[in-house]
């Protein structure tokens, strides 16, 4: 096994390979999240769509590796691993921090002459709507309080002190990356963009989500669901229908 293959296996999880699919969907997790969050998506979409889930360093089997504190640096590392998979069209789905990463990966793809088939940006405001946030500077109790507020980490993890110690460093690193993210001006994307958001998301208003319209010259749509930041946990079937219908025309 070559080093390049080993690196790819560390970064990319292909839970239900679909080698006959005409398109790939790359899924990028939220802050503190892992590739396994998208296991149900891979199960549901295979074999029509070949789903690749990204595993960031600093969590689960990559727990011993240092996290990446800069969004652009992390996007560049992800794109380096995705390049060999560009033998067929690639769409990107990212939730929260993953949405910002998907956007930055798409910019790298287009700069390299590879047009993303579609971008699905979930639970994240456009770069034009910046907020001053410092969650990553809080103590452990303050960080856990934020996780409870967003209800994004399974309650058994928050209640298990040992498990919590294992994930807090990765969560803090991810929060630092997204909270210190600074958009670097450039041309809008050519790719079509679908933005998904919960109507009660404390991190993203509908106006902030609509702001993504200025970052593509392709088709744009905003899909609003009931719920908070992790609205997608209760709307999986609806979101999968959105994804499959858009990818059918990619």
TrEMBL record:
InterPro entries: AB_hydrolase_fold (IPR029058), TEII (IPR012223), TesA-like (IPR020802), Thioesterase (IPR001031). Keywords: Hydrolase. Residues 26-247 form the Thioesterase TesA-like domain. PANTHER family: S-ACYL FATTY ACID SYNTHASE THIOESTERASE, MEDIUM CHAIN, THIOESTERASE. Belongs to the thioesterase family. This is Surfactin synthase thioesterase subunit. The lineage of its organism: Bacteria, Bacillati, Actinomycetota, Actinomycetes, Streptosporangiales.
């Amino acid at each position: 096994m070559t080093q390049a293959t080993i690196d790819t296996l560390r970064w990319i999880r292909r839970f239900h390979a679909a080698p006959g699919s005409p398109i790939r969907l790359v899924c990028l997790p939220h802050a503190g999240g892992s590739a396994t969050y998208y296991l149900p998506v891979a199960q549901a979409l295979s074999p029509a769509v070949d789903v690749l889930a990204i595993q960031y360093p600093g969590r689960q089997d990559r727990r011993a590796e240092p996290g990446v504190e800069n969004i652009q640096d992390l996007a560049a590392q992800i794109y380096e691993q995705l390049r060999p998979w560009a033998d067929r069209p690639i769409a990107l789905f990212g939730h929260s921090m993953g949405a910002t990463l998907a956007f930055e990966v798409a910019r790298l793809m287009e700069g390299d002459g590879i047009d993303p088939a579609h971008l699905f940006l979930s639970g994240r405001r456009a770069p034009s709507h910046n907020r001053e946030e410092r969650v990553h500077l809080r103590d452990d109790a303050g960080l856990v309080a934020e996780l409870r507020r967003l209800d994004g980490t399974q309650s058994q993890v928050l209640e298990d002190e040992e498990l919590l110690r294992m994930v807090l460093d990765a969560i803090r690193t991810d929060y630092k990356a997204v909270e210190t993210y600074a958009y670097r001006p450039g041309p809008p994307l050519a790719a079509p963009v679908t933005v998904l958001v919960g109507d009660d998301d404390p991190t993203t208003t509908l106006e902030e989500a609509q702001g993504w319209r200025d970052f593509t010259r392709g088709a744009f749509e905003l899909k609003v669901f009931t719920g908070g930041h992790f609205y997608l946990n209760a709307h999986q079937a609806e979101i999968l229908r959105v994804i499959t219908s858009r990818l059918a025309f990619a």
